[in-house]
Write a structure and sequence with these properties.
By secondary structure, the chain is mostly helical. Helices cover 71% and strands 0% of the residues. It is built from seven helices and no strands. The longest helix is centred in the first third of the chain and has 32 residues. The radius of gyration is 21 Å and the shape is globular.
């Protein structure tokens, strides 16, 4: 089985060749890879931005009316940051990423400290909602799927960016993936 590894330049040139009808030597596997590699980043951006905007508007309800505008601004910022190149965009997006990770780890540490010292304030329980009697719907399944996709966002960026790692590239990329996995597990268990 052919293992397709396509750069954006190769993807664009092969797509143009196919669009012009000049024939191509693409196998079905390579064609499928081309399709996924072109749509994957779009889905990642859409899910990530939607989750981010939902989180912001839940924290600041007065911003709820401007969700679409906020999402478009975030997509524009991501686009401008990524136009700088793989290494440069990595530097641009490192600061917000580190801020998020450190903030969440501090939150988990503070919660663990309060649990160990017995200083957690009890939460007043609200009355449960009346069951509607409706079965699990497609909308709920899609919501769960999008939440899972948000959790996995960025994993493919490491594998796509292996050439931009310092030598030895494969070893540094593997260390990055292990770090990401450890952080993800720690944050999910902590929350």
């Amino acid at each position: 089985v052919e293992t397709p590894t396509l750069s954006p330049t190769v993807m664009v040139s092969e797509a143009k060749t196919m669009a012009e009808g000049k024939g191509t030597t693409l196998s079905e596997t390579r064609m499928l890879s081309l399709t996924f590699r072109m749509t994957g980043p779009s889905v990642t951006v859409a899910v990530s931005v939607a989750a981010g905007v939902a989180a912001l508007t839940s924290a600041f309800p007065e911003w709820h009316l401007n969700r679409v505008e906020m999402a478009l601004v975030f997509v524009l910022l991501l686009m401008l940051g990524n136009l700088r190149g793989i290494r440069e965009s990595g530097r641009i997006f490192a600061l917000p990423t580190y801020f998020f990770v450190v903030s969440l780890l501090l939150l988990i540490a503070a919660g663990a400290w309060r649990a160990l010292t017995g200083t957690i304030d009890p939460v007043v329980a609200v009355s449960p909602m009346e069951p509607t009697g409706q079965p699990l719907t497609l909308f709920l399944l899609l919501t769960a799927f999008s939440n899972g996709c948000t959790a996995m966002t960025g994993v493919e960026a490491v594998s796509d960016g292996v050439p931009s790692f310092r030598p030895p590239e494969a070893k540094n990329a593997a260390a990055t993936m292990l770090t990401m996995a450890a952080l993800s597990i720690t944050m999910f268990l902590g929350i």
